[in-house]
Every structure is written in C-alpha cells, then in structure tokens.
Design goal:
The chain is α+β, with helices and mostly antiparallel strands. About 35% of the residues lie in helices and about 25% in strands. Helix 2 packs parallel to helix 3.
Amino acid sequence: MLEPEAEMSAPGTDREIWPSLPYERWRDTCVTLQLWTQIVGKIRLSFTPWLNHSWHVALYVTARGLTTSPIPFGERAFQIDFDFIDHMLHRKRRCDPIDSSGSEGLLDVRFFGGTAMSLEGSEDE
C-alpha cells in the first residue's frame, strides 16, 4: 500500500521542481489581483445568463494569464483578459480591442472606473 502522500502525487513527479513563493514579497500583488479578479467577476456576473452554482462567472486560464471568455453585451459580446506577461488588462469586443491599460500602480477604484467606462463607451459604437 502506498503512503498517503505518494498517492496524491503523479508518478514520476518531483515536488522540488516548483519554485518557492515567498508570500511576504508578493502579498500586495496577491491582494490587488484578488480584488481585480473580483471586480471582473462581478462584471461578468451582471452580464452573463445564470448557470447553476455560478459556473458562468469563472475566469479561464490562458497562455498569458486569465480571461472571462466572451460575455454577452446586447447584440454583441466582449471579454476581459488579464495578461500577466506584459502586465496589461485588455478589454475586447469580439476581436477588436476596446482598450488596454497597464496594471502597475493602478488603484482599485481607478481600475474599476476605467473598466466600467470603457464598457459603457463601447455601447455607442
């Protein structure tokens, strides 16, 4: 019989390959990212038809970060992408960018306001 720890690890994997994550050094980033994903999740929640257990609010992993995937917006759709490689937030309507903003030094209130205003402005187009 395998030890409990051995049962939880995939065969041939080494737990030492993962880098350490010194939480104290990236705590502020963690808190900010949590708040920003919560804001984007609330936007998605308000525009997407309800699915059981709030499954419609999930963010999906991409090669560059996270995405909402397309969100219905009237007769059109938009999506919001977190790009962790370039430190950007992209708001797109279909394939056309609505706008992008850098994430460094942006306060949560300005983040929400900028995201909401960019979506409101896209209605007129």
